[in-house]
Structures are given as C-alpha cells and as structure tokens.
Design brief:
With 969 residues, the protein is an alpha/beta fold. The chain folds into 7 domains: 113 residues; 179 residues, P-loop containing nucleotide triphosphate hydrolases (Rossmann fold, 3-Layer(aba) Sandwich); 107 residues, Helicase, Ruva Protein, domain 3 (Orthogonal Bundle), CATH 1.10.8; 159 residues, Orthogonal Bundle (PTS-regulatory domain, PRD); 116 residues, 3-Layer(aba) Sandwich (Rossmann fold), CATH 3.40.50; 90 residues, Rossmann fold; 138 residues, 3-Layer(aba) Sandwich (Mannitol-specific EII, Chain A). The protein is 48% helix and 13% strand. It is built from 42 helices and 28 strands. Strands 4-7-10-3-11 form a 5-stranded parallel β-sheet. Helix 2 crosses helix 3, helix 14 packs across helix 16 and helix 38 runs antiparallel to helix 39. The radius of gyration is 34 Å and the shape is globular.
Length: 969
Amino acid sequence: MGKADSLRLLLGSEDKKNPYTDQELAQKLAISRGEATLLRQRMKIPDSRERRRPVLCEAIRQIMDSDPYLAKRTVTEKLRQMGFAVSRFTTEQLLQNDTYRQSPEAAVPPGIQQPVAEYGGKEITGMAFGHLIGQKGSLFPAIEQAKAAILYPPKGLHTLLFGATGVGKSDLAEAMYRFAVETGRLNATAPFVMFNCADYADNPQLLLSQLCGHVQGAFTGAERPKEGLIEKANEGILFLDEIHRLPPEGQEILFYLIDKGRFRRLGETESLRQASVMLIMATTELPSASLLATFRRRVPMVIELPSLQERPLSERLLLIHHFLRHEAQRTGNTLAIDADAVRALLLYDCTGNVGQLSADIQVACARGFLNLITGGNRNISITVADLPAHARRGLLKVRHQKDKLDKLRVTGYEIAPGKDNMVYMDELYTWPREIYSYIEERYGELSRQKFSQKELNRIIGAELEDKLRQWIKRADETAELVNKADLYKVVGRPIVDIVESMLERAESMLGHANERIVVGLSIHLTETLKRLKQNKAIMNPHLEKTKHEYAREFAIAQDMAECFARHTGIRLPEEEIGFITLYLTMYCRQDNEGRVGILVLSHGHVAAGMAEVANRLLGVNHAKAVEMSLDESPETALERTVELVMQIDEGKGVLFLVDMGSLADFSTRITELTGIPVRSVGPVYTMMVIEAVRRALLPEASLTELADSIGQSCIGMTSVKQELLHNPSGKPVILSVCITGQGAALQLQKELERKLGQAGGVEIICLGLADRQSFTQQVRQIMSTRTVQAVVGTLDPHIPGVPFITVEQVLSNNLPSVFKPMAYKPASLQDIIKEELIFFPNQEASKPQIIELLAESLISRNLVKPQFAADVMKRELIGVPVLSLRVAIPHGEDPRYIQQTSAALAVFPEAVPWGENYRVNIVCMLAVTADGKEIVQDLGERLTNDDLVERLLGTQSAMEVREVLLQDL
C-alpha cells in the first residue's frame, strides 16, 4: 500500500472531533513531519484545524442555541466534556462575530469517508475517561488500550496495570468500569469490587479467604460460610491492587478462574463454582519479577502508566488546578496561591507521583487553613512557606525551566468554592502596580549597557506596549475578571468612581469601557497618587512616541486628566498622561501583530550560547536556537527547525541567523511547508544576534526590514566563510580599523602599544574599510594563519566571532579582559573579608533581622542590588543552607542581583536559632559572581575548621575576626 493510500485510510478512521495533526500522521506513517505535510497538501486535504472546524462549529451552535449568554470559558469546558481537545483561544475565535455559524456543513476531503465510532449500535463518546487529566496527552495510549480491553469480544480482556506508586492505576480501573457500563458492555447494576492484596499479605490463608470465600470449618475461626470477592464481582469487574502481594497459590486460583471460569471456596474439595468476572489488576513491580509466568501468560493486556516526571508540565499544572479546586470545595473557602508556590509544585521531585502531589497540596492547604483560623484571614492563602520542605526545593529548578514556565504563563490563582474558573490575581493586579518599578529597573540595566537615550526609550517603550498587550489578553481570558466589590477592597471605591468618570470622557473612542481597563487604570492611578505624594519622579520613556503616534488618544487622555484634577485637586504630569494614553491605545489596538521571531542556527554547539548572551543582555527570552550536530542529517535538523518556527511565530514571520552550509537553505523550504515567512541572514556572530533581538522587540519592525538592515550591517564580510574565521594555533593579533587604515588606525595602534606593552606578544595591524574587496581579502588572509583577538576602531566591521572595541573605550582605559590578559586578578579572601561587613548583633536578634542587617550592609555599599535580599529569603524558604551545625551561609540564587563578589558576617558567642533544626554561631552571607568558586572553597574550608570557629567566637572586634579568618594567607 502506498503512502497516499495509507494516509486516506488513517484519515478515514480518525476521531472527527480531534483529527490527526501532521505530526501524528508522520508518526503513524513513519515519515518526517515535513513529508507528511507535503503529502497532505498534494492530495488537497485540509489541515487538522480545517477538518475539525465544521464539527466544532456545529457543537458550538448547539451549545449557544441552548444558552446564548454562556461565558467563553464555560463554552470551552462544555466542548471538552463533549470530547473536543480545544483551547479557549480557539473557542473565542469561533465565537467572535458568530463565526461558528458561517460553516453549516462539514467539508469532507475527496476520497475520505467520515467514520462513526459505534459499539452495539451506540456511538462511543468515551466520557468515562473525561475526568482523567492527560486523556488526550500522556495518558492517551493507555486509555486507548483500556478501551480496547473493555470492548474486546466476547467479554473483554483481563488487564494488568503497571506503574509506580501514585500514577493513577486505581483511577484508570474505575474509569474502565464506567466505560464498560457506558458502552453497554456491562449492565448498569454490574458490580465493581476493589481489593488491595497488601492488606492481608502477612496472612496468606486470610487473603485467599477474602478472595475466594470459605466454607464452615475451613480453618480455625471459620464458624460460618463466607462469600468471597470473586462471587461478589460476578458479571462485573474485580480490581485487585498490588497483585504482586498475592501468594503463588492465589495466582494459581486466578489462573484457573481465567482459564475455566471456575473456582473453589477455601475448604471445598469437590464442588466447583462458576463466575464470569473481568479481572483488572495493578502492580508497582515488574510483572516478570513478581508474577508467575503461567499467570502472566493468561493476562493479554498490560497497560503501563507514565510517572508524573514523564508527563508534560502542562498536565502537571492542570493537576495542581484540579487538586486546588477540590480543596476549595472541601473547605468551603476561597483559596489563593502565589506564583512561586505554583512554580515549586510544578518543578519539585515528586517521587510519589500524582498521589503525592495531591497529598502535598493538602498539607499546604491545611497550613493555610490553620492560618485562616488563628490569624483571622478571610481566605486560605498559600505561599512557598506553606509547602512541605521537599516541595519548596522545586524553586531551585526555576532558572533551568524558565522557557517552559514562560510558555505556561505560570501565575498565582484565586479559586472560589463551587466555581470552575480561576482568577489570575497576580497578573490582574501586579502589572499595573509595577509599571514604575519595571521602568526604573530596566532603565538602570540598559544604561549600564551603554545604550543611547533614544535606543533606551525605544526598547523600554516597546516592552511597555508588549507587556500591557499581554495583560489585556490575560484579562480577556479570565471569564470573571474582578467584580467591583473586590476592586474596592484593593484600591478603594473613590478611585474606581473617578476612573469611571474619566472613562466617560473617552466613550467616543472606547464605547462602553469594560472591567479590564477600569481595573488597570484604577490600580495604576493608585500607585501614581502614592508616588506623587512621596515626591517621586514619574519616568516615561515612551512619552515622545506616544504624543507623536497616538495624538488623538493623547488628547483624550489630557481631557481625562482634567477630570482627575477636578475630583482630586491633583494635576497629573505629562508623563502620566502618556501612560493613560498607552492604556487607551492598547485597549483599542489589542489585535496588533506580534514581533518578528529570531532563530539562531549553527553547526555544532554555538547557536545556543549566542542566543543566551543576547537574551540576557536585553533582559528577554526572544532568541531561540537550533544546533545541528556533525552526524545529524539536514532533514532531521529541518524537521526540528519546522517545529520551533511554528512555536515562535507571532504573526510577523521568523528571521534565521545562520552560520553556513545547508542551514542557509532552510528558510525557503520552511516557508513552503508552513506558509510562515522566513528569511535567512549570515554568517552569524554574537553582536548580530544582539542587534537582531533589539530591533525585533520594536513594534514597528517587519521581517523584510529587519533582514535587510541586519544583512547590510556586515560590511564586506558575508563572503568570508565561518570555517576560516578561527585559527586557534595562530599567534594573537588585534586589528586597528578606520576608513583608510591610516590616521585614526595608526593613532590607535600607538595608543594600544603604549598601554599594552608586550603583554601576551599581541601584534596590532592597521586596516582600511574603504576598499571592500581589499579589506575582505586582508581579513581572510590574516585569519587563515592568526588568531584575531579583537577589532578596535571608529567603525565596526562586524567580523563574525570577534569583539569590537570603540575608540572611547581605548582612550578612557576601559579595556575588556581580552586586551589585558595579564591584568586580570580574581577576588581573594583578603578582598572580600572587610571590617565594615563584620557584625556582632544582639543575641536576641531573629533570623529575618539578621538577614536584613547583612543584606542591607551589602546593598548600601552597592555590592549587590536591592532584589538580593528577597532572593536570599526565597532561598531560605526552600531549605536552610549551612556549612556545619554552627555555621549558616545564607545566599541568593540569581546572579543578576550581584554586582561584586562579597561576604558579610555576623558572630554570636552564644548560638542563635536558625530554622527549625539549627542553632548557629556564625552567619556568613555570601554574594558570589560566576568567577567566585575559589572564594567559596577557601572560605568554606576555614569555616568548617572547628579550631578556627572556636577562635572566632572568642573575638571581640571586626578587626580580630578578619585577622583570624585571614591567618596564614
């Protein structure tokens, strides 16, 4: 059978509610995704979304006809209950402008028959498995096997469920029973009997009695006959958990029951009893190691369930939501959980799987409930501190899982009992409240990176627009945003009333203002009033662009500001009017396209490093990478690239930054396969990636403009192949570059020779840029035999992989380490052990007070950023870091908050409480940069020396502490 015929056969039997994606088709046909897409297109078969669209529209029509005022979230939930694996976004798209009414009939591709899945004349809906999270994901293969086991004629297949403790074997067994009833395989009154073989594992005779029953006098104490579980489960299902605890004689009894449908009660010798029972058994042990071979051969269906670790984070998040809803319902209280607690639950090592996750959430809710009872809180509030200690450690993995968490949009939640929806409190309240602090922090970061004022304003302005657009999207996705009563509690009724009066002035543009803009402006203006009363400056890098590009909205915002002044007596500055304009603009223009995607592609392990540098410098996560190993085929790399392009495309296409060879040809092929516009530019180098990401963040950037501008920035170097750019064995050289290669280049050469002397034997060569061909040939020749350490000059020639240093840096002696190989000296203990950072606090000081004292001493000397203190406290919640029973070493986890390797110490002659199980004498707060390994090891070696610690406890001044710690150095 050809591939085309196989494809028709597959599509003819697919679930019309959830058609096969191209990836699923590729897996079933054992071909690449790209080949599957091309085959489907050649056969003029629509993609999975279009094939599902008519069926989905019909379902939405039925739902909306029954109740036209249902919320989008509720419609989505009903669709999922009907068996559609559908997102709320898809539902919203079809509900918009009654789109779902525009496709009355399904468009069936030529040659494809739409199947009707039936059993005994009834359509199989599979609703019995609908409550299982992951039914269309990680549990899909297991559920399909389970359905097959139930439906197999004449009376189903005996089944063994295999998986670690807590994966959900019991839940699946119960769902199989409901499915058997739902399909008519079992009568609605058929029994479902559960038994855990471990309960009587220490008494085999009693266990067999429970299973088979016994006759009177079968053993001591058997005073009357007893019916066993097999008889109770007759004409139904018997579920035996932990079947590996059943002794061999018990397995033989089941073996006979499976083979003959007969068994004997314990103590019976002659008569045999008849039973028609389907067995579902579960075990955590390998069947081959724990069950008799003769018994295993009689159980044809073995279903293995994945561990929680093997399931995607998206399913784990749904499980967390489910358990939180359950606890809110059980307690009858609104339950709020903060974002860090959700992240910890998502990432910690949950060895007990779904069962343990449920138990750990119950523990956290119990602690929150205790706080509600004893502290007078109105709701159950869960933070990281309420989680079990092992669950808190999940926060240690946040940095390594940032991409996955960003895709899930992890935030805090508030769940009311009896309601399915969750209010995303963090994003609804936090972003409008933190606009000012965000601007100040980003302004500081970008200023240190030497961005011009104009570039700085453009970057932050674009980020503000993007973040506000995301906030509005999140608000739209929340069915019940925030009611007035809740908003009054947060900001007070007067400010809400003022905002609504202001928005009446904007009716010509907004029409009737809904809750999302009322919430955003109310919270934002509350923070504005606080700031103005404290005489803090209001900084708005977006102001000039706002006034120029959104003149109409700015005029309306000025009118709104006049309304604000009449109510409050406070005149808002022009910068603040710019923020009001931004809210109005984003509210009205929320359907703007996204940004151009950036994808770095390389042979070998190069691309990921360049993408990471660009993302960290610009404080974003926009650049992605594909690295093609030397033994990987171009087709495999193409398939991986297609997947990533489809993920990162935001509607404007994707720019490829490639190094060489076959990767440069990917863009055209991917556009043909996916329809997504893709352009390639190369050869790539780090500065090119940084510039591409910076420009892609600007809202007006287009793919064509970005590709052309980035490509033109490589002055004469596009013909230089990447493989010629590095010759590690060659002698080091620095290129001094100006337009002609004379004047400025010669002066720079002399200045560098004076500053560097003979350090490292680096030769300085002058080159001119004016003659493109000559310059390219000279660079190629030099790089074929030498190692170019850097380029210095008035213009950056953008040589791939070579750093560029400006004239100003040379003249101001601000040279990077590549220029000063002999000057670099790592920090030492003598450098960081300073008397002004050594303290003898009061013995009564609490742990938070000690941490605050030490952190503030580092912050006040600009050794760490203000966020360092909170980072330290967050790390303490995860687990108490100690060197010994007498020495604690509080520290942060995020290197972005550390300016310089440093340490602050507190000495206590009498031990003080430090966490639940520790009392310490020395608290050493560490702030260590990436090059601080030697510092940590040297200091750790000294602070674990009992004799030295004893001497420290006998000191009476900071000078003595320093002398003891630095002795023998």
